[in-house]
Amino acid sequence: MAILNLDLDNDSKLVNADIPQQHARYTLLPEHAPHSHTLMAYPSIESADDEPHLHALQSEIVGIANAISSFEPVHLYTRDELIDQAKSQTSSNVIVRPALLNELWIRDSGPVYVRNASTCQRTAINFNFNYWGNKLPFKGDEHLATRIIQQTNDQSIKSRLTMEGGAIEHDGQGTFLGAESCIINDNRNKGWTKADIETELKTILGVSHFIWIPGLKNHDITDYHIDALARFTEPGVILLSKPFPTAPSIVHKAYDETRTILQNSKDAKGRSLTIYDCEEPDTTALGPPDANNEVVASYANYLLVNGGVIIPKFGQEEQDSKALELFKRLFPTREVVQVKINMLPRTGGGIHCATQHVPL
Question: Which residue from 12, 9, 110, 67 is spatially nearest to 351, judged by alpha carbons?
């Protein structure tokens, strides 16, 4: 596809335009670059099985937001009727903002931020959230990225590609890591070839080199987002989530495939990758999943913040302690903070899934 259909948002006015790819260059900043703030979403009953489920989700979102707020501001979006409730539970560095939303997974429904390579302006990408390949009914969250963009002065791009922020992993030096199962999938991008998708991502994210893993279609609601499996802790270094022995055999197979691919891959600079395994907790001991998900519990689903790193604590002492020590080794200049979560993994995600960093 030589031509990209992009909707550019200047001064909050959407303008449709066909832009040759050489004229639409953007750079995806790495998560370790300085942040302006972090986006989060405080969920409504529409995203929960029942009231106890909702209250547990809201409590864990508040715990994550308050932890992040010690390092940088948090903009917490929620429905009008929940604003006072959210404000009463959060710190002064958490700014509660109105938005018609239900789901808490703002990494996927919200905008992804890049920088315009020509003007250096921060630019928000709307990747057309469709509930992970039309797996749930549309109920408002498909408009969240647009609503957030309309509340800011950021320029924006509306891509023709449908994907989620949790499907994107990169090293800040041109290397993109992702799962074919969720991006090269007809439930999101029917008719798009791998070459088509790479062309758009090169233009819109500024990446130059791709490492693809097969992933797993239909295993979980996301079709195997990369941010719960493999993350760049720095260029050339990967943290890989290793399944607990009780995990399904198909998950162990996906891990083995991913590890083999990473061991045999080089990054955009021609470097071989150093891989650190981080064993997951025993998901069977966390409790049952909600009605629409599998339990997803991964220490790789962490969030870098200004001066720190927020990682999950699942209440399993051996795995939690080993993960804490590994993160202290991998991020020696950052304060490592563990936040206890249980209902989030049982609802299909974790800390990274529930947050979206906004670069300066």
Answer: 67
Give strand ranges (E) for the chain. 3-10, 13-20, 26-27, 35-41, 74-78, 94-98, 112-116, 122-126, 155-158, 169-170, 175-179, 209-213, 230-234, 237-242, 274-279, 303-305, 308-313, 335-340, 355-359
Q: For the segment 182-237, what is each residue's pLDDT rounded down to a tens digit?
A: 999 999 999 999 999 999 999 999 999 999 999 999 999 999 999 999 999 999 99
Alpha helices, DSSP H, located in 169-288? 180-183, 186-189, 194-205, 249-263
Percent of the chain surpassing pLDDT 90: 91
pLDDT tens, position by position, 31-79: 999 999 999 999 999 999 999 999 999 999 999 999 999 999 999 999 9
Alpha-carbon span 278 to 230, nearest angstrom:
10
The model's pTM is: 0.93
Contact 272, 238 (CB under 8 A): no
CB count in 10 Å sphere of residue 23 = 10
CB 101 within 8 A of CB 139: no
Q: Can you tell me the distance from the alpha carbon of 13 to that of 239, in angstroms, rounded to the nearest whole number?
A: 40
The token duo for 193 is 């070839």
Using CA atoms, how far apart are residues 284 and 286, in angstroms rounded to an integer? 6
Residues 273, 264: Cα–Cα separation, whole Å: 8
CATH superfamily of 3-359: L-arginine/glycine Amidinotransferase; Chain A (3.75.10.10)
Q: Residue 310 forms beta bridges with which residues?
A: 303, 337
The neighbouring-strand residues paired with 20 are 3
Sheet strands side by side (includes 112-116): 13-20, 3-10, 155-158, 122-126, 112-116, 26-27
